């Protein structure tokens, strides 16, 4: 009786059709495995376009701290703040530069943030050294390029120098000041005009 009981089950199992293989699924699996097996390579470095030549002659031109200013070719400006404290160098918001051409010329450039101000004349007193500098003429307001400038001639007791000049102007939300010590009475104003002819600043002219 047991044999008769299992025989119909075996016959039914033998009659169930065998499932057909899913070739689409097999192809997808094969493609995925093939792609995963493809070795990767380090990409070639991207060619960089070389910098184009500077269209401006950099001789006698200082450009940093988001502004440019002219100067005699014999002078190289250095950061006075960094000289005094390397941890607190000049930056775009404030700073002091000094250049020296021995034995007859010293130039100083100073700037600071002056957002909201329209008059930079306060910088004249800031850049002058009251211990050695004295105004020797009246303040003259003029326009150099698009800049409104205040200029005052000075005399100084600084060793090796007698004459000089100080100037101030606004540009791009900053107040700038300039000072020169010279050995000739009218040399400072000529230097200043030359410097301002090349002056540019971010945020203004």
List keywords for this structure.
205 residues, alpha+beta, Jelly Rolls, 8-stranded antiparallel beta sheet, 3-stranded antiparallel beta sheet, 25% helix, disordered N terminus
Task: Describe the secondary-structure layout.
Elements: H1 2-15, H2 23-37, E1 61-64, E2 67-70, E3 78-79, H3 80-84, E4 94-101, E5 105-113, H4 122-127, E6 133-135, E7 140-144, E8 147-156, E9 163-171, E10 174-182, H5 187-197, E11 200-201
Antiparallel strand pairs: 1-2, 2-11, 3-4, 4-5, 5-10, 6-8, 7-8, 8-9, 9-10
The general outline is: globular
Q: How many strands appear in the DSSP assignment?
A: 11
Separate helix tally: 5
CATH topology of the largest domain: Jelly Rolls
Largest sheet: number of strands, sense, barrel closure: 8 strands, antiparallel
How many distinct folded domains? 2
Low-confidence stretches: 1-11
**Terminal residue distance:** 111 Å
CATH architecture of the largest domain: Sandwich
Derived from helix and strand composition plus strand pairing, the structural class reads alpha+beta
Average pLDDT over all residues? 82
User: What's the level 1 CATH class of the largest domain?
Assistant: Mainly Beta
Work out the helicity level: 10-25%
Percent range for β-strand residues = 25-35%
SSE order, one letter for each helix or strand: HHEEEHEEHEEEEEHE
Rg, alpha carbons: 39 Å
């Amino acid at each position: 009786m047991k044999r008769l009981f299992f025989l119909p089950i075996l016959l039914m199992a033998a009659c169930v059709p065998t499932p057909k293989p899913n070739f689409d699924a097999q192809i997808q699996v094969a493609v995925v495995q093939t792609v995963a097996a493809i070795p990767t390579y380090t990409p070639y470095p991207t060619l960089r376009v070389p910098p184009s030549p500077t269209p401006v002659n950099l001789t006698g031109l200082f450009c940093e701290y988001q502004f440019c200013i002219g100067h005699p070719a014999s002078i190289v400006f250095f950061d006075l703040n960094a000289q005094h404290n390397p941890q607190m160098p000049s930056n775009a918001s404030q700073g002091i530069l000094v250049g020296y051409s021995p034995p007859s010329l010293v130039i100083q450039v100073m700037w600071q943030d002056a957002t909201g101000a329209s008059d930079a004349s306060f910088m004249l007193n800031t850049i002058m050294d009251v211990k050695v500098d004295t105004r020797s003429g009246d303040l003259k307001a003029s326009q150099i390029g698009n800049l409104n400038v205040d200029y005052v001639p000075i005399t100084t007791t600084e060793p090796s120098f007698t004459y000089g000049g100080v100037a101030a102007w606004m540009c791009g939300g900053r107040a700038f000041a300039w000072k020169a010590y010279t050995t000739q009475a009218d040399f400072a104003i000529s230097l200043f005009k030359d410097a301002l002819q090349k002056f540019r600043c971010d945020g203004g002219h």
